[in-house]
Amino acid sequence: MAINMAKITDAIFAVHELEEMADRKLEVNKVHPLVKLVITLAYMILVVSFHKYNLPGLLPFILYPLILLKLSDIPVKACLGKIRGLLPLLLFIGIFNPIFDSAPYVYIAGIGISGGIISMVTLFLKGMYCISASFLLIATTGIDGICYALRLLHIPNILVTQFLLTYRYITVLMAEANGVYQAYSLRAPGEKGVKYKIWGSLIGQLLLRSIDRAGNLYESMLLRGFNGEFAYIKKTKAQGRDYAFLSLWLGIFAVLYFGIKILI
Amino acid sequence: MWLAKAKDSVKNIKVNTNQENGYKGIIECSNLSFSYESGMEILKDITFTTREGESVGIVGANGAGKSTLLRILVGLETTYSGEVLIDKIPVSRDTLAAVRAHAGYLFQDSDNQLFTQSVYQDVAFAPRNYGLGEEDVDKRVMEALNTMGITHLKDKQIYKMSGGEKKMASIATLLSMTPDILLFDEPSIALDPSNRRTLINVLNRLELTKLIASHDLDLILETCSRVILISEGGIVKEGPAEEILKDKKLLESNHLELPLCMQGYTPFKGGSGEN
Hints:
The complex is a heterodimer of chains A (264) and B (275).
Chain A: E1 2-3, H1 8-22, H2 27-30, H3 33-48, H4 55-58, H5 63-71, H6 76-83, H7 87-94, H8 97-100, E2 104-108, E3 111-114, H9 115-152, H10 157-186, E4 194-195, H11 199-223, H12 240-263
Antiparallel strand pairs in A: 1-4, 2-3
Chain B: H1 2-12, E1 27-35, E2 41-49, E3 55-59, H2 66-73, E4 81-86, E5 89-90, H3 96-102, E6 103-106, H4 110-113, H5 119-129, H6 134-148, H7 163-175, E7 181-185, H8 193-205, E8 209-213, H9 217-223, E9 226-231, E10 234-240, H10 241-245, H11 248-253
Helix pairs in contact in B: 5-6, 5-7, 6-7
């Protein structure tokens, strides 16, 4: 039995790639983090609030991720590539719906489509929309920006800092895992993955090393005046164009939500 | 609880606090001893003082206690006995914020020093924590980057930087705090000759009190006027850099050797194994 850890490098690269995306000077990246967070939350709440059989109502909401992908200059393929790991999970969540809810709900060209199938697709779409919106928020705002926005929403500092440090710890953990795995593989030629017999010591080492490294980083923060208060990015106030961006999107969401309710 | 205290004291610290008590760049250690909880004694009765703007080298073999000494000076270890003063401020849990506003500490590994996305963010981290406005933060960052000659790296992602660039950026993160004292733990480790030379030039240019712990005795010779030789946690000898670093017998008895520039030329015999 073996575990393949060769994808760690890719994962580290993916995290850095996301941070780099957020660091670009695009107009959408310049929008105030709080505005983008509010829009994303509003979008997710609206999408999730749709009834499980209201598939037609949900479909137009694809506009938001599509337009944002265009604005942030991220190809659809790249976005799908980033979130593809979660797609099986989304499918799995609703996979039993057709079994438990097999009664036909609607007939299309004489063919009865069960409520279970519709609710499964609805659930999948809701998940896809929410994940895409989250991905786009991170890719255009960055974790530091999101944390700043959370603080502006008066989320307790301890929670925000915890979230931020956890995010940083994940990259430290991945970097250490990569180092440990490389050291192992160089001395275990021809082996695929890591032998189960040494999983215990390897994971133990990994934990100790990553804790040590995280401790050093924390000390470095303390030495430079970190006092538990979040001060990572430039504090800015929302400008007129930020409010315009917010109003525009909330307006579009309202039109889509209520317009569809009237039409259907 | 101590974090809450630190929080309050950081809030009370304003920019350039380092000049507030009138002392600049003075380190005073009296009878400093330090042991870990296990009882292992790391430092024994260390006593020394630095003057303003002085550059002092701390040399000694692996495990001699050099890094621990530096960690105590910035309050990363506070359970020592004896007296440690940074610009007349006693180093204790209650004074950490003030001490750290006076003294900056450079980690051996730059990856431990830099933790944000870009160079700018990392250099701005301390000024922002000390409550400076964005204009002042920007000024501090640009000054620090300029001193280190790395303004072109301002927006560079840290994971894309070379070891030499990271080292320069790490020093800039300290300079943005405008400290009076800089503590360097093995600053030339893993640097290529060119980056090492740049580092030496930078160290010589910085008119701050510097305490440099290193095995790189050539670097110490080029950057420090005084040397403190530590062995098994105690000071073996202290004096002018040239005097100590040319004492072959003294160095060898403490698991060190003469700086390369003092070893004289030895003809290279190739890799055949012949002598």
